[in-house]
Arabinose ABC transporter permease
Amino acid sequence: MAERTAPARTAAAGADGRLTALLTSAMAFSMLQLFLLGAFGPRFVDESVLSPTLLGLTTTIGFGAAALLSPIGGRVVDRTGPRRSLVALLLVSAAALALIGAAPGPGLLLAAVALGGLPQALANPATNKAILAAVPPARRGSVTGMKQSGVQLGAFAAGLPLAALAGCIGWRGAVWTAAAAAAAAALWAHRALPADPPAKSAPPPAPLVPRGALAWLAAFSLLLGSGIASVNTYVALFGARELGMGPAAAAALVAVLGVAGIAGRVGWSRVARPGRAERLPGALAAGAVPAACLLAAAPYAHPLVWVAAVAVGVFAVSANAVSMVLVMQRAAPGRAGQDSALVAAGFFAGFAVGPPLFAPLAEAGRYGRGWLLVAAEFAAAGALATAWAVRERRRGPRTEAPA
């Protein structure tokens, strides 16, 4: 029997690995355009393509569109299935990136960013639905953490290899290269994923406003996203303008943030088991507070900016992955897409709100006050999540949701 089961276990592990790689890629491409805008921010400002305020507006438009589309996207995923949704996600990502590369000025560029809200709206519902359908409960936490790290993989790609490529062929050529890669990933998804069942008829209308635990997680995600978005959007420009870093070194800050986020999301998600996961969001958000304070102190000791980038990735960015693990543990049968979308909408709304609050401070060169604002947002998220964890502890332990 052992001789027969060992190959079966090996095949299952290989299938899990291929699925994880595909889902990780989908998450990376879903937000790659916004990481590219952050990493190339100094180039855009120096070439007068965007002002610092318009740079923040790109994030607001992209994530505002994602927040509005997320509840609808969740329903679409539940009805049509993960394969169709992932292929659509990657094709639209490719189109948005291609438009950014072709944009002659801010008008078309901002329109392309708005189009990129659709892949973001589909990303968490589609990938979570695929995990619940294909991954055993014992491995869902680790697979979820790995695929959530794809977002930070996108940050790394924007901040290092694509930034280096931009130094050789220009930022437009680098963005078009990313668009071609997204199109290739869509073909991979079409070939690798099993066919979806026939599209389901429309289910009974579900509430578009989160309730109960979902409401707590959405509010936490809004505050957390506000702080993370400000760091993603402005840390490279901060490095270039306030710390005297060159464009490549400033973009590398985004890459370091991405690598730290990958490690943090994978590591924390693996230990986010029912009964323990509820305590993690508050602790991670609290750990991000001193990270934002280090950014405020970086003009007095420049190496602190690298420590801060790592800490934001390990704590703040990782907290979002843990919140998605919690959603999957609590999702009602057949509603994983919708529940994921409602919490993701809160996160995207935070990404839409954060940079405009930071932008006037960046325009005035008052980055220290901006980073203290980010610290306050992380502190509020931590307090909210801790209050929710205490409430959940009183209600007793929860078990993993069924597929």
The chain has one domain: 16-193+209-395.
